[in-house]
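Hey all, sorry for the wall of text incoming. These are the two entities for the joint prediction.
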Amino acid sequence: MRHAKLNSFAGGFIALALLAAPPPAARAATAADIGHASVVKIYVTNQRENYMMPWQAGPQSGGSGTGFIIRGKRILTNAHLVADARFLEVQKSGDARRYRATVRFVAHDCDLAELEIQEGDFFKGTRALNFADRLPSLDDEVIVLGYPLGGDRLSVTKGIVSRMDYAAYAHSGVDQHLVLQVDAAINPGNSGGPVLYGGRVVGLAFQGLALAENIGYAIPLPVVQHFLKDVEDGQYHGYPELGAAFVGMRNPALRRDLGVPAGRSGIVIYFIDDFGAARGRLLPGDVLMAVDGHPIAEDGTVTIGTETYLFAELLERKQWGDTITVDVWRQHAAVTLAIPLDNPHDPFAYRNQYDHRPPYVMTGGLVFSTMSQELLQSMQRTSSSPNVQRLFYTMDYVKQDRLHEGRDEFVILIQRLPHPVNAYLDDFLFGILDEVNGVHIRRLHDLHDALAKPKGLYHELRFVGMQDVLVLNVNQARLAEPDIMRTYNLPARDNLEDIP
Amino acid sequence: MMACRLNLLALLAVGLVMARPAVADDVDLGRRLVRVVVTYQVSNPFLPWQSQAPSTRTGYGIQIGPAEVLTTEHLLRNHTHVELLHAREGEKITASVAIADKRLNLALLTIASPDHADTNLPTLELAGPLPLRTPVSVLQFDDDNDTQFADASVAAISVSSLPDSPYSMLTYALLAQLNVDGEGAPIVCSNQLAGLAISYQASTRIGTAIGHPFIARFLEDARRTPYLGPASGGFTWKPLVDPAKRAWLGLGPERAGILLVSTSPGTGASRTLQPRDVILEWDGRPLDAMGYYSDPAFGRLEFSHLVKGKASPGDHVPVTIWRDGTRQVVSLELGGDPDLNALVPENVTGEKAPYLVSGGLILRELDVFMLRALGQDWRAKADPEHLHYFIDGIPNQQPGDRVVVMLGILPDTINVGYQHLRNRVVTAVNGTPIRNMHDVFAVADRDGIAHRFTLKGLGVDLVLDREELAAANLRLARQYRIPALEYRGVAPQPAGPVEEPATR
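and here's what came out:
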């Protein structure tokens, strides 16, 4: 489930009380035994991209984290550990040797990754960890294994389950899933390590909370299992998104206005995302009364047995391609609809990007790239530049105000590399390109193509919200480019290939 | 002191009663100087029925007639009570604000009681334009409440921004020998009024003053009813230096003419000019590529001075433009206060906004004063959608179009389920599309009550129980201590047709 501005009306988080697992059986092995046989240290060198200077990479950074071996000679760890990795090695406890590893599957939306190691002897003497059947209860004791900072050897910390909640996953910056909160210490380096209950995996340590003590977060069993099931067909699809925003139906006047009969409950859909599974199936004004037969209360919760969940939690268990059945009150009548969970890729969700090289096109020292969360992170919301403010508005309101219509991405003038040919063009910096030489710009490729067909002696570039036209002398720009590329270290005029 | 005597061409007699020969001297100027004590109170833009705590600021003014005092508008902003004090005297004389012009930063006060009018006051003469390095005096009170003449000289003449204002005008920069301790302090030259101080920086000892052309035109305008104030062009422009752009427009490389960027809806400019016109001459004066002309009195000045310093709303000026490869002369009708036609007005003076509270929903129009009230980093704190309206406006904007915002909801049983919604743009009330608060009030009057609200981006109307609403409004007013559930403003609202309610 994505949390964007449009979804913020869902109200607060719903704390989930989870099914109690039976007390652990007599221990077959100590936590340390398990750790030595199954928990590995991962060494990584990563390199983030430079979104303001997309022709060159950012600086390298290195670090280490934890992973653990599961059935099928696989290693499970966090996506954030291996994102943008340039070089990966894995080391077993008590073994000096480091093995080269590669990423087989990565799920940035739920911060999980599966690694593989080509050298067959790696798994000799190791033991795959087993998953628990169900989640522990609040106050149950859990053990966190890993290689946190402060030493090279395996660390074991113990704590209890303090909370189960639906919370944001920092790695994607956008997605929300179930989170297991424990009071065991989870420090940098613990990332990717198993959280054990009764010797079995119930979660994967992944993030802490700044300014708080004794709060560690783990990716709980259902999310891990969702990932493993998803990749069974050899490809990661991700979580399906319903793409519907709602208000509750607590107000009796609203209920009367929609003609919802007494005894029926539900939530009122007020917005349908063009990139959600609900597109073309649910409509604004629909009252969503039940999902897969589970009635939805007026605050958006469902009750299963004695437990109460946010209805979105039902969708969390679904795989891409599954179908849900919904009961809807529409135009004063009840209808039942099947919704296939098959939403298309959403280029306007603005998740954090990884393993992706930002594209660019340069002409006359003007560098164009595409809108991204990373690009806007390098700008200030306090900026007095209307162009910068327009970018933040566009990112935040792209769906509500349907700004994406007619576009596959937003093309932005991100740099002016000063040269006499572009000396008077600063007013256009950070503008969103609308039209070049009479051609509407849907995506960066269009700019590349339109620059091949100038209007006579000039390129004419028009920007969203600006009356003024950027004019560039074609010949002067062309003549200036080798000089500009040399001066500012551009290896190429453009990069349109989306390769890591 | 000779320099300004040479410029006594445009003497303007403003004394209403001339009872004494016009021989002004230091004693006379001292008699005219008043300390202005302003109690002011700023309305809370987010809870528009509330005001912030009253506070006081002091400055100066100069008595220009028996009961008239000239000072700055900025000093008087949001006044609730104004008192005047003469040098050496402790008596507090109540004054009322006759005219305050936010764009000229000038205001005229009237002494309320005839007992305090100075019927023997001689005519005050205005000095002409001050050349650079002219020695002048700044009048203010010393520590003993006596008149002090602080020596100063004119260091620069330019069109610059007014304090706390988006407006700019021709000002003198003054280098003063003593600290200037209040705005409105008169600048005098040879016993003539040459300007009013509007700001002062103690660290550099540089003060800024409004000069002759504006004081003269303000006093002249002030004698006419209704007060019109200065003109505005109704368009935005930028320099046109870029040789590629000039060639693309079919112009030569000579550094002449500026580029018109946009026009404001409802203005003469929107009827006469269009984006990409190049303005070559304004009222017969050639403009350079940076927008400057040669002023006979002040030398090189930005041409906005020709609009604001000389013209009145409704005036027509000949403008020579370059359009589609030809030179043509158009007659441009000048506008007045740009706020009148703005989608998001500046409301630089922080006027209390018209509002409506219905069922706990607080509705008002968006203005820049409200955005700035979010604090120093208001751009980061403001809703990006609100900034978007301020920056980009809306397509096909019509005069009178405003952005009506539902600021938030005061919780009550009538509005359960909606209370988390805030800062949403309202597009219709009771099913009728609305363009401004005037429309909102018209719908409320037509239907007796505002009970259904359509918010932008929300595919479902917020519906309130019509039967319960009147009682809920009384309850809300009592609970949240709202003295009035609506305020329709003092200025006439722009008119707009109210459509019949859509059938639902």
